[in-house]
C-alpha cells in the first residue's frame, strides 16, 4: 500500500505497527540513530549497558541498521530524559507498550526494504508517504508523528494555525521536536487524551481548534480513527471486509488487497468520525 502511493509521497515514508501489549510495567521505545555521527554503526549494545548501569534497569535492545527498540521495566519518562541527556542525537520515535515505529527519508520502497517492513506482524498499523510542503525533508519530520504512549497520527493537508496551537500547548509544558504542522495536531490530540477525553471527544475538539485542510489517520493500542476537515479537501477511501479495514488516499493503493472486489468501499464524509476498535 505504501509503495502504491510513491508518486504522492516520494520524500520519506514511515509506519507505526501495533501488536499485543507488553506485560504490565514493561515499556518500549523506538529509536533512530541516523542523525548521529555513527549512523547505522551506532553502538546500541553499549547504550543499553550504559542505561542499565546508570538507571538501574534491566533492558533488552533489538536493532537493525539505524533503528532500535529498547525494552525495559521502569519509568519511560525517566528513560527518555536520560536518552536526551546522554545521547541527544538519538531521535526518539515512539514510546509505549504496543507501538513500534519506523520512518526515514527516501522512497517508500527504499524505507520498506531498509527496515524489512514486510516481516512485521501486528494487529493494526498506520503508514504514510510524504511529499514535504510545510517543513524540511528529514527523518524526524517524516510521518507518523507520535506523542505520549501508544498514539500516532499521519496527516495529508496543511494546518493554518499550527503555531497558535503550539504556543497554547507550550504554555502547558508540552515540548515540540520539530516545526512540522502535523506535530501540532498530534500533540493537541494526545494532550486531550491525557486530560481525560475519549478519542472521540478529543477529535470533536480538534474540529474546533485545528484550522486548515486535513485528513488525519490516528492509531492507539486498540483503535484506529479517521477524520477529514469540514470541506473534505484531501482525499480518502476506505475498504471494509469481514477480515480487514484498509484506508488510503487513492483506491489504487487498495486494488491489490485480498477480496477487494467484495469489500464495502466508501469515501469518508467531511467532519465525521470513523473509529474502529481492535
UniProtKB/TrEMBL annotation:
Keywords: Glutamine amidotransferase. This is Class II glutamine amidotransferase. It comes from Acidithiobacillus ferrianus.
